[in-house]
Amino acid sequence: MLPSLGYGILVITMLVSIYSVSIAIYGETTKSAAMVESARRAMLLTLPLITAASLILIYLLINDRYDVEYVWSVTNRTMPTYLKITAWWGGQPGSLLFWSWLLSVFTASVTLRKWDRDRELLPWVLVVTGITLTFFISLIVFFENPFKLIPAGVQVPLDGRGLNPLLRHPGMIIHPPAQYLGFVSFTIPFAFAIAALITGRTDDRWIRITRKWTLWAWLFLSLGLVLGMRWAYDVLGWGGYWGWDPVEISALMPWLTGTAFLHSVMIQEKRGMLKHWNMILIILTFNLVIFGTFLTRSGVLSSVHAFAQSEIGPLFFIFIGATFVISFALLIHRWEDLKSGTEMKSMLSKEALFLLNNLLFLSLLVISFWGVIFPLLSELFTGSKVTVGPPFYERATGPVWGALMLLMGIAPLAAWGRSTLKTLGRAIWKPALAALLAPILAFSVGIRNWVALISFTLIALVITVSIREFWRGARARSRKSGGNFFIELWNLIKRNRRRYGGYIIHISMVLMGIGIIGIEFFQTDTQQHLAIGETIEISGYTLRYDRLDQFRHEDGRLITRGEMTLSKDGKFLETLAPRFDLYPDGQPMTIPAVRSTLVDDVYVILVNWEGITAESTPFKVYHNPLVKWVWIGGYLFVFGIFIAVGSDEERKKV
Amino acid sequence: MKPKFIIGGLLIVAAVIYLIASSTSANAEYFMTIEEVKAQESEIIGKSLRISGAVLGDTINYDPDTLSINFTVANVTGDNDEIEANGGLAKVLHDAVRAEGTPRLDVVYNGPMPDLLKNEAQAIMTGHLEADGVFYADELLLKCPTKYEEAIPDQAE
Q: Which residues of chain B have a CB within 8 Å of the CB of A607?
């Protein structure tokens, strides 16, 4: 009964959104306000409909309704309720429903508010989001019904198969939704861009309206990436957090174009330039978002994320292809209108450096995209199966990341319009000199890797330049007003949130860079079989193997737990207990034990699940220097976005 | 657009093409079966290869002092559909080890003895072939399909 109701609601939702799209197009072209209004209401109706369907699904998940295939495939009786709820996005059909629900929420919030202010653009925004929503809901209705019952005549299973154990982690509550929020919210700026192209309102209005949407989308996309890294580090037990897995790359690609977009819209707002460019970037970003969803969901590429596989792949390709062709056709149609009045003059002006930043982000995109499609191309054209692994990405993107860091150090000091080497040099020599302390310090503690030394210099440069901007601004204000330095610092940030939030984000990025350099250049590992009482040494640390426990958890998994004492120079530091869980369905899970400090992490795992005995237990130990800075940078990053996303105080008053 | 911007843009494009091309050729890994390796032995010396094979239990030789392991692997197909058609991975590995005429390859790997390295395990190795016809593996992943049909995702290994 309930499953049929849920499915029925989804069918109705699909019809309603098809109705909304067609009547919006018809109403706009025939100038019928009543029809457009009807389209808007229909679109608003999809929100309660999808919400109801989702609530039904959640109800079924919580109440162990194993007569529903999806519920059976992603939950079982031993899972806690919160994980049963997260199973909403634990498999293909549910995650498509979740995607649709988010899109519906966003569309509703766009169409509910400020409808009259943005009256020319909004009907077309509604058309774009409506088409996307129709696409996703149709996939659910025709191919991936989460309410599908088990075949008639088959006895209802007593227990479900359960969520993949790798996903039974508190991180599962936030990583996928954050990633999806990021993906889905980029639909809104894209929809406004297309609306601007269709209506010919090609000034920077669409950019101003979607500024916050873009920042929020970017926040969630970034958060999704960082949380995914953290989850991989804590759960997957391979000593790192980023493996250049195709799905990771597919989430990184829209981030790259999105980041470029965030920067270049500022040039359009301030100087009226790069209008074509912004259109291209947002179209690319949206297509990469759909491509990312498709890669995660289609199982074309084998990856840690390929939990769900199905035949909807070709449909995604058709959707991406159609979006791409139509968007670029519209762009070419409006090409002349988007020409800018001003021309770029100086190579060192702020706008030129922004453009360079964009080109670098696009270079990263091209490199990443090449890495993903190279195996497919190679098999197609030469017949030999070839692949490129992490070393390819590290080598090819490394110099580009370096150049980006250099830009983050220089660009804040460049002036709009015209800048020369002389003015720039005058602005930069002090922070650059201060930044030289970093490599000197690194050299004195024994670091001889010159790439790392250069990277540390660049990181320090970004930090000194950014902090100096805060300091100069606040000092100038406090001199002028005679007020307290810190109060003026706060006022400074409040008056120009995007600029100073941006600097905080720059600092957070290079802090993450410290961690990345630590793991890229200085990670070491060692592997050894130990009997109880024996020790293993790594980078000055000693780990003594103390005891081994093996027991069955109430949910049926067999837990093997080793206990080790970590010490340095004879001084006790911590007890580390790496674990190996074997689930009843044969799925193993390696859970590392980590001691994390600002300087380094000691990361221990139990390597193999077979034949672990007290006399011979295989341990693998990683020494990951500086990796904690990745997470510190992540927190600061979120803080920076919250600063940047708020409205400037001065602008409010106007 | 001023010429200096066009030149600058072209320089960036050239740099990116160079980075991609050089990194690809330095890091491309060729998936090959042992049969293919044997057939093209002379052409692929030194190239980075990814090879899968069935471990011959009798040939495993471990020297705990130098942490070096020698063993021989027998050819198995790289095509998943073919594996399924021939009765699953466990059977394919079993047959590969028992058959007389299958191409075989000697492997050298340095590291502690993995527990899973035993007869009829599937070894997935990356490394390169040297002129002596021996495959020097930098990375060794092992799967024993008899016990757990479902492999852990690649990254978790």
A: 115
